[in-house]
Amino acid sequence: MPGANDLSDTDFSSAVTAITSAFGDPTRRAIYLFAREHDEGVTAAEVASRFGLHPNVARHHLDKLAGGGYLEISVHRGSRSGAGRPSKRYRATGEDPVSIPVRHDDLLVTLLGRALQLLPRDQAEAMAEEVGHEYGRVMARAMGATGDQRRSAHAAVAAVADALTAHGFAAHAERRNRELRIVSEHCPFGDAVRDNPVICAVDRGLVTGMLAELHGHATAELEASKASGDRVCVTAVET
């Protein structure tokens, strides 16, 4: 698995940002180690009891770790009949956090850009956004999203930002003038987006796909983009 010496400066910075987002809190690091000690996984209630936390706080830490790809979630019903509120178990993925690589492939991204150039721009954007949307739904389900447990708009956007960070976007959520936004300081698609800005539609699809599972229908609009020369990418979200 690639290490720090195999990454470019921007990729290494993004990887550090992802790890810091997940493990910057000492309690969260301790929770991660606690989960690694239990092959069957842990629940928010067990973590709350172990560390003297409110269950909602324990769940927040666990969801942060899951959003970063360090824990995986399985959902279990309270009885054999399936009745009752489902419980979540969080289990360590087995990945070493300090060696998780930034998830992109320059060759495939370049190929995607060239392929999209063969289509009219509106068709290319629609296809790129659809692919991103479908993959965003898969990402959200991997985080344990279920249709009967919707998150608030703010919590869902924050979870999306964490998941994007784990995929190399170095993203964070913010609220400005009552508008929810996701700010990405790094683009994992690299220089390919400058030649093929239509690839940015994939980002928009990722956001709407994850939000569809975590919160419900949402729209996303790119307000700033590195592909256009901006310092960061900014996606405005309306739920």
Could you characterize what this model shows?
The protein is elongated. The longest helix has 22 residues, at 121-142. It is an alpha+beta fold and 239 residues long. A hairpin with a 2-residue loop joins strand 3 (171-176) and strand 4. It has a 4-stranded antiparallel beta sheet with strand order 3-4-6-5. Strands 1-2 form a two-stranded antiparallel ribbon. The chain has 9 helices and 6 strands. It starts with 8 loop residues before the first helix and ends with a strand. The model is unreliable at 1-5 and 98-104 (pLDDT under 50). The relative contact order is 0.14. Helix 4 packs parallel to helix 7. It has helices at residues 9-23, 26-36, 44-51, 55-67, 106-117, 121-142, 153-166, 192-195, 200-214; strands at 71-76, 87-92, 171-176, 179-184, 219-224, 233-238. The chain has 2 domains: 4-99, Winged helix-like DNA-binding domain superfamily/Winged helix DNA-binding domain (Arc Repressor Mutant, subunit A); 106-238, Muramoyl-pentapeptide Carboxypeptidase, domain 2 (2-Layer Sandwich), CATH 3.30.1380.20.
Give a brief description:
The chain has helices spanning 9-23, 26-36, 44-51, 55-67, 106-117, 121-142, 153-166, 192-195, 200-214, and strands spanning 71-76, 87-92, 171-176, 179-184, 219-224, 233-238. With 239 residues, it is of the alpha+beta class.
